[in-house]
Write a structure and sequence with these properties.
Protein name: Arrestin C-terminal-like domain-containing protein
Family: Belongs to the arrestin family.
InterPro entries: Arrestin-like_C (IPR014752), Arrestin-like_N (IPR011021), Arrestin_C-like (IPR011022), Arrestin_domain-protein (IPR050357), Ig_E-set (IPR014756)
Structural class: mainly beta
Distance between the termini: 43 Å
Shape: elongated
Strand content: over 45%
Number of domains: 2
Number of strands: 20
Keywords: Sensory transduction
Oligomer: single chain
Organism: Photinus pyralis
């Protein structure tokens, strides 16, 4: 007759390098001889997306560890049994995440290796998470510049967008102050300037890349941001980082990289294409490492 098994963790979220404790619960409906009760812990990165009819795919293991919970082959009578387990997570693991095109997952798999019977198995996913503490991050000022020369029959100078931040380290729900300057040396009028904050992931496999945006603010159009030819204007602005922005660390994750950025757009009249700028940010937790758990 079939039995069953289940995995119970001491808690659901762990830091890289932390000790994981839990129990395997086993139920036997009849007398049974068991070679071993094995539990396997593993982590992996998986990315996948379509390019035309081709699927770009990569699966990479992060670690795999197996442990036997019985000292020797054991005969069980019908009943309920509990076996504790403990193992050390490797350090420097990426945080658990699942988004469009990619995921990082961790799980435990238990197997009751029976003699002359169908084995009982079960799986349970657990979460690994870590992030930087804002108080320990080293911030620095940033100046990002983008230039574009509008298409013209005559000689024209460039439109230059400059974004200055006094600090590049922030936490979710904080305001990000910055100065945006547009110097228009062209003969084309700048119609509007817009900004938003974005968080997402880039994926790369065999020199093929794609990107997905997980969180972004509503695009903010700067009021009265027309810049006429041969003119220069600047604005003191600020945007709030969404409170639900993911800030988990992603080390040892070669195929999946996280980013946070301010994205700016200078809107030009037809037939010119708008110009864009990306200003990188670094995000961490405003709470101390101990109070964040």
């Amino acid at each position: 007759m079939p039995g069953s098994c289940g995995i119970v963790f001491e808690k659901q979220i762990y830091r890289p390098g932390e000790v994981v404790n839990g129990k395997v619960h086993c139920t036997f409906a009849a007398d049974c001889k068991v070679r071993d009760i094995k539990i396997t812990f593993s982590g992996r990165i998986k990315v996948s997306w379509k390019v035309g009819k081709t699927t770009v795919y990569k699966r990479e293991p992060l670690f795999e560890m197996e442990s036997g919970l019985l000292l020797c082959e054991t005969s069980f009578t019908p009943g309920y049994y509990v076996y504790p387990f403990t193992f050390n997570l490797p350090g420097n693991l990426p945080s658990s995440i699942e988004v469009l095109h990619g995921s990082v997952k961790y799980k435990a798999h238990a197997k009751i290796d029976k003699e002359w019977c169908i084995d009982d198995t079960c799986e349970k996913v657990f979460t690994v998470y870590s992030c930087y503490y804002l108080g320990s991050m080293i911030s620095s000022p940033i100046e990002s510049v983008k230039e574009k020369i509008p298409l013209s029959l005559g000689a024209e100078g460039p439109i230059r967008l400059t974004v200055n931040l006094s600090n590049n380290c922030y936490a979710p729900n904080q305001m990000v102050p910055f100065i945006a300057t547009v110097r228009n040396n062209s003969g084309t009028t700048v119609n509007e300037v817009r900004f938003k904050i974005m968080q997402g992931f880039t994926f790369e496999v065999n020199e093929r890349t794609t990107e997905t945006i997980q969180t972004e603010t509503q695009e903010f159009a700067v009021i009265d941001s027309v810049v006429k030819p041969r003119d220069e204007r600047f604005w003191n602005l600020e945007l709030r980082i969404p409170a639900d922005t993911f800030i988990g660390n992603m080390p040892n994750c070669n195929y999946m990289k996280i980013f946070w950025k301010i994205k700016g757009e200078v809107c030009l009249p037809f037939p010119h294409r708008n110009m864009h700028i990306d200003v990188p940010l670094l995000l961490g937790s405003a709470a101390s490492p101990n109070s964040a758990w």
